[in-house]
Every structure is written in structure tokens, then in C-alpha cells.
């Protein structure tokens, strides 16, 4: 699953990846999105090798006669047609031996199809969301088919699985969203994807899980009832680094671990930080404690980290600021304390990533750390003193410039008249003329008024 809880889509082989020639008269049927009634005549196409009617709106009730003469059929793709209902006898012997069988989202149930026991060439089997509510028969885990991809997810399958899934060739196993119970089953050593999420598995993770699946790329055990601690060999046993250095190449293969919504206890597993290729890590809703170490920066490819709803304590390591690819982070509802790192990638997350932790402070939370106000007050005080000093300096020069300007306005002409005597005579003659003329005009106005 991804960081928001949605089921991760496993890439199953497509029809385009099958090397067999495709019958010409079926090339336009798949993915037309039309309503079609699948007729009995299809079962008379004795030369048919590849039948793909996936992702349409086919309707009808299927019985054995619809496949009666398809003896050469090797590829059967009927997934994505929720209107198809299969009514096939438990004693039916199919005339074909298929390699690819995809019947997801069809109505195969409620019983597990017993005719699969006779299939000896199966490579891909997808019966997800097929309305099957019975148990998986024991014979299924011992079939002789070279099965590589198995998807039984999103049904209501139940019963306890065998401790060892003995289908030797399986590389992708998706048993998620069912009612499987009991201890965690171990697949073969070639398994790369194991999704057991959203079931009722219980007990601890097998301590030898790493030795059993050294090539693991995706492991999802979320939403179960698993207890205990994560084995210390979880990371090293994925690649057998402690046993043989040639397996170090597997160190970068593990890209996703989802162990959320279980009952794990113990300290935050330090060994996980050695999975340098890890992209997705979800350990949320467990009972982990201890602290996160600075060497978490070794997960330099990490894009999503969810450790919410645990009992992890200590400070948030500053080295997390170096996880430049991390776009999703949730550390909420733990026991962290002190200041949130305020550099690098840690500045890109909002307050929800740190919610429910009263001992945390600093951005993006509204809670300020002790000393922030003091430092801010000192800074503001210094700024105020500097502003006051600047203002006083400006005032002194302002008044000084006014005084100098006034003095120059008064004394300037005086010094000029003293130095230049002809100018002085001319100046005072002009003043006398202005005064005489002013007196003359005043006398004249006085006589006129009489």
C-alpha cells in the first residue's frame, strides 16, 4: 500500500507482453466498453489459442458448454467483467491447459474453482475480487504448475495457510484483503513481492523470514494482528550480507516495507537503516519505542516515511533534513520532544506531520521553543537601540545644516560687500533710491486722500 493507504497496483503481465499470435477476429473486442452477451458459439472455436475479452461489460451465466471445444486455449483473459457469472460443476474437466488465466472481478464464487487442480501449465493466475468466500483447498498449494504470479486478493477466503507455501516458482504473491489467519506463511526463496495485508494473521514475524526470501522487494503485512518485535536480521537476511558478500547486491532491492496496524513492540528497528534502496516505509499504528538514530540519513532514497501512532521518543534527528527525496512524512502521536529541525527537507512539511506531540516545538508548529522569545527580544532590543542611535545622529546633522544655512544667508552678502567696494556703493545707492521712491509714493498717497 502507499502512504495514503491505497492498495499498490502489482504489475501483472499484459496481453501485449504475450508472444503468441492474437486471433484477428478478437482484436477489436477488448476494452470496447460495450454491453455484449457472451454466446455458446464461442465455445465452438476449436482452433482458438488466445481469448481476451477483458475490461468490457460482458454479461451472462457461464457453464461448461461455453468452453466445450476450446482444447487449444492457452491464454484466457476475462478480467474486468463484473456481469459474468460462472456456474461450473466441481467435477468439470476443462478441455484446455492455459498458461495465463485472469478472471478478476468476475463472479466465480462462492466456492474455490476445483477445476484448477487439473491445470498443469499455469504461469499467471489472477482471481482477485472474484466473490470467492470458501477456503483454499490444501491441494492448491501442491499443484504442479510452474506458477509465478498469484493474486487471490479482495475475496473472502479463509482458513489457516500452511507454514510453507510450497509452490517453488512463485515470485509474486498477493493474498491481501481476505480472512486468512494463523502464523505468517513463508514463500519460496524466489519470491520478490509478498502482500499479506488486511487479513487476520497473528503471532510474530518468523525469525528466518530473511533467509527464506532473500530476493524480497516488496513486503506488506499491514492490518493484521502480528505481535512481537521485528527480527534483527530483517535487513541483513534480505541480502545475506552477513553470510556472503556477493549478496550485497540485494541491499538496494528492498523498496517497500509496510508493517502498519499490527501489535509490534520493541525499539525502532535500527537495521532498517541499512536498506539503502528503501523508498516506502510504514510502521504506523504499532507499539514501537526507542528513538530514531542519526544514521537514518542512510535511507537516501526514502520518499515516504510513516511512523505515526507509536511510542517513539527522543529528539527528531537533524540528519532527516538530508533526506531530499522525502515527500511524505508522518511522525504524529509519538513521544518526541525538543525542537523540530528547521533546515533542508524538514522545512517542507506542515504541522499535521508532527501533531499530537505536546513536547515538540518550533516551526511549523505554533508552539515556540524556550529561548526563541528571549532571542527575539534581544534582537528587537538591539534593533531599537540602533534605530534610536540612528535617529539621534540624523537629528544632529539636520539642525546643524539649518544653522549653517541661516548663517550663510545672512553673512554671505555682508562679506561680499566688504570685499567688493564698488558693489557696496552700488548696493547702497540702490537702497537709497528704493527708500526715496517709497517715501515719495507715501506722501503722494497722503495728499490724495485729503
How would you describe this structure in keywords?
elongated; 6-stranded parallel β-sheet; 19% helix; 450 residues; 12-stranded parallel β-sheet; alpha/beta
Structure report:
Strands 2-4-6-7-8-10-12-14-16-18-20-22 form a 12-stranded parallel sheet, with no helix packed on it. A 6-stranded parallel sheet has the order 9-11-13-15-17-19, with no helix packed on it. Helix content is 19%, strand content 18%. It is α/β, with parallel strands linked by helices. α3 crosses α4 (421-449). Residues 1-9, 15-37, 235-252 and 381-388 have low confidence and may be disordered. It is built from 4 helices and 25 strands. It starts with 34 loop residues before the first strand and ends with a helix.
Quick rundown:
By secondary structure, this protein is of the alpha/beta class. The chain has helices at 209-212, 234-239, 372-419, 421-449; strands spanning 35-37, 50-52, 57-62, 75-77, 83-86, 100-102, 124-126, 149-151, 158-160, 172-174, 179-182, 193-195, 200-203, 218-220, 225-228, 256-258, 263-267, 280-282, 287-289, 304-306, 313-314, 328-330, 335-336, 338-339, 360-361.
Amino acid at each position: 500500500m502507499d502512504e495514503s493507504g491505497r492498495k499498490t497496483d502489482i504489475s501483472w503481465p499484459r496481453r501485449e507482453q504475450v508472444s503468441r499470435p492474437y486471433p484477428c477476429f478478437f482484436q477489436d473486442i477488448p476494452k470496447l466498453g460495450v454491453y455484449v452477451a457472451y454466446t455458446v458459439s464461442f465455445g465452438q472455436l476449436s482452433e482458438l489459442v488466445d481469448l481476451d475479452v477483458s475490461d468490457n461489460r460482458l454479461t451472462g451465466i457461464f457453464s461448461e458448454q461455453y468452453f466445450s471445444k476450446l482444447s487449444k486455449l492457452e491464454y484466457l483473459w476475462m478480467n474486468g467483467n463484473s456481469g459474468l457469472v460462472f456456474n461450473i460443476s466441481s467435477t468439470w474437466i476443462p478441455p484446455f491447459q492455459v498458461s495465463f488465466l485472469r478472471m478478476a472481478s468476475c463472479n466465480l464464487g462462492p466456492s474455490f474453482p476445483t477445476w484448477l487442480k487439473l491445470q498443469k501449465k499455469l504461469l499467471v493466475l489472477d482471481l482477485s475480487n472474484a466473490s470467492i468466500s470458501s477456503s483454499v483447498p490444501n491441494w492448491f498449494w501442491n499443484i504442479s504448475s510452474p506458477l509465478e504470479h498469484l493474486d487471490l486478493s479482495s475475496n473472502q477466503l479463509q482458513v489457516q495457510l500452511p507454514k510453507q507455501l510450497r509452490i517453488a516458482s512463485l515470485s509474486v504473491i498477493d493474498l491481501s484483503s481476505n480472512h486468512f489467519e494463523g502464523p505468517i506463511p513463508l514463500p519460496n526463496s524466489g519470491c520478490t513481492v509478498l502482500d499479506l495485508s488486511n487479513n487476520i494473521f497473528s503471532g510474530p514475524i518468523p525469525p528466518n523470514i530473511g533467509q527464506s526470501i532473500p530476493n524480497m522487494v516488496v513486503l506488506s503485512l499491514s492490518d493484521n494482528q502480528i505481535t512481537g518485535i521485528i527480527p534483527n536480521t530483517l535487513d541483513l537476511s534480505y541480502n545475506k550480507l552477513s553470510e556472503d558478500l556477493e549478496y550485497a547486491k540485494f541491499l538496494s532491492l528492498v523498496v517497500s516495507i509496510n508493517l502498519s496496524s499490527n501489535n509490534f513492540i520493541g525499539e525502532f528497528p535500527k537495521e532498517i537503516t541499512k536498506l539503502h534502496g528503501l523508498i516506502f516505509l510504514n510502521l504506523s499504528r504499532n507499539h514501537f519505542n526507542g528513538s530514531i538514530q542519526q544514521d537514518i540519513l542512510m535511507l537516501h532514497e526514502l520518499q515516504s516515511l510513516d511512523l505515526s501512532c507509536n511510542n517513539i521518543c527522543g529528539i527528531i534527528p537533524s540528519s532527516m533534513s538530508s533526506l531530499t527525496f522525502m515527500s511524505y512524512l508522518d511522525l504524529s502521536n509519538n513521544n518526541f520532544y525538543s525542537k523540530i529541525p528547521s533546515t533542508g527537507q524538514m522545512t517542507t512539511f506542515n504541522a499535521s506531520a508532527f501533531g499530537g506531540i505536546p513536547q515538540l516545538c518550533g516551526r511549523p508548529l505554533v508552539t515556540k521553543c524556550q529561548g526563541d522569545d528571549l532571542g527575539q527580544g534581544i534582537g528587537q532590543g538591539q534593533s531599537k537601540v540602533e534605530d534610536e542611535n540612528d535617529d539621534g545622529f540624523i537629528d544632529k546633522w539636520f539642525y546643524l545644516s539649518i544653522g549653517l544655512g541661516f548663517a550663510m544667508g545672512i553673512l554671505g552678502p555682508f562679506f561680499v560687500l566688504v570685499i567688493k567696494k564698488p558693489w557696496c556703493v552700488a548696493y547702497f545707492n540702490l537702497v537709497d533710491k528704493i527708500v526715496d521712491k517709497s517715501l515719495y509714493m507715501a506722501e503722494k498717497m497722503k495728499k490724495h486722500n485729503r
